[in-house]
Specification:
10-stranded mixed beta sheet; two-stranded antiparallel sheet; alpha/beta; 18 helices
């Protein structure tokens, strides 16, 4: 993949912006269901066996042991500089970590690891980070993830905010816990639009004809079409998707949309080629920080999208206990603070915010200014009112994905 292709890959792009997505098998305290779980202790995986869900999860974890090592797959530039959080984990627990920045795109990663898992083999990593949406849904549909041992997540239960402990795409955090999150809202360039934007209607404003930027990521694009019609994406149906596609098509055919962008939307907005655009919160924070562009960002009154990059354990992982311990490590407020100070994305741990504020007060010069912005920005710490307006993606599990794609793909493919 070329650098230009990376910039325009809507999933990869978010992960590469300095620093950088449903549930069909319900286990652990939810309705009983069948799950194919491997008896993968000792010398490697054995053929899967289907058993009662809760009993399978309990038996699986009862057979696991700590091995003193974990292999962690993540996106590039998506951890604290110098990996101090990993070094402290090893110093505290004695568990060593092999950390690899090997996830370049969600579709590319899932396409790579799924055949390996379905063949009954370990992928070489015990922990990986995947965003909620199409690809997370495919992993769940294929029984390619290990349900988490909830008893090994005390820090998560204690410190994660309610918004991240009750998520529609993974009820009960059965398979995943958040690594970091971001929002999709509206950004505008105040050089060309002086009146503050508050509504999705502004993306359909004739005054901005030919100057509107929309996302090429059809999950975000579809969400905004649904929200424009007053439909909650999380409870939407295939009929709703067709209605949303119609209103987005009307926007395009009226000549309002300059383009459907991946990461390049940020350059279009900064330069003035577009005046207003769908945007990712982390990008706007970083762009303003690095260039002083003064771009504005809002979660519109009708709502926006909350997307989350999630830690999860692939089936046949060789060190699942160690992986669980590393997962929960990142819910210690002081560790979460270190991570957020580096990557500047939304943290699930509110207790990290005052720690960052204290770090800012102790720092000097440009570091003090940066940490103060991280500690106070609503792009990193959305307000309670903002969270109420943020939605996850629609359920696109199984055959629903094809219906969703057929509704929205024609918009960006011509």
């Amino acid at each position: 993949m070329t650098d230009e292709e990376r910039r325009d890959d809507p999933v990869l792009a978010r992960g590469m912006t300095r620093p950088r997505r449903r549930d069909v098998l319900r286990l652990g305290g939810l309705a009983a269901a069948g799950l194919a779980l491997a008896a993968c202790s000792g010398g490697g995986p054995s053929p899967p066996r289907v058993v009662h869900a809760q009993n399978a999860v309990a038996r699986f974890w009862a057979a696991q042991k700590r091995h003193g090592h974990v292999n962690f797959a993540n996106w590039p530039l998506y951890i604290d500089t110098g990996h101090k959080t990993l070094q402290e984990f090893t110093a505290t627990t004695g568990i060593t970590v092999s950390y690899a920045e090997v996830i370049q795109s969600a579709p590319g990663w899932v396409s790579k690891v799924s055949p390996i898992i379905r063949a009954g083999e370990a992928i070489g990593y015990d922990l990986m980070v995947v965003t909620n949406g199409f690809w997370f849904s495919q992993l769940l549909t294929g029984s390619e993830l290990i349900p988490l041992d909830q008893s090994m997540l005390p820090n998560f239960r204690k410190y994660a905010s309610a918004k991240f402990q009750h998520r529609s795409f993974d009820p009960g955090n059965t398979y995943s816990v958040p690594w970091a999150s971001g929002t999709t809202g509206i950004a505008w360039n105040p050089k060309f639009i002086q009146t503050p934007v508050t509504s999705l209607r502004e993306l359909w404003n004739p005054a901005y004809k030919g100057r509107v930027g929309m996302m090429a990521d059809i999950q975000d694009l579809g969400n905004f079409g649904l929200l424009k019609l007053g439909i909650n994406p999380e409870t939407s149906t295939a009929r709703d998707w067709q209605a949303a596609a119609k209103t987005l098509t009307q926007q395009r055919d009226a000549g309002l949309v300059r383009g459907y962008y991946g990461q390049s939307y940020i350059d279009q907005l900064t330069s003035g080629n577009t005046w207003i655009s769908m945007a990712w919160s982390g990008d706007i924070f970083q762009q303003n920080l690095s260039s002083g562009s003064g771009l504005k960002f809002v979660i519109p009154d009708e709502g926006g999208t909350l997307w989350t990059d999630n830690m999860m354990i692939p089936r046949y992982a060789q060190n699942p206990v160690d992986a669980m311990m590393l997962m929960d490590w990142y819910y210690r407020p002081e560790i979460a603070a270190q991570l957020t100070e580096s990557i500047n994305y939304i943290s699930a741990i509110p207790a990290a915010q005052p720690i960052i504020a204290r770090d800012a007060a102790k720092a000097t010069g440009s570091t003090r200014q940066l940490l103060h912005q991280v500690a106070t920005s609503e792009l990193v710490w959305p307000s309670p009112a903002d969270y109420k307006r943020l939605h996850n993606y629609p359920d696109v599990s199984g055959k629903l994905q094809a219906a969703f794609e057929s509704a929205f793909n024609p918009l960006i493919s011509g």
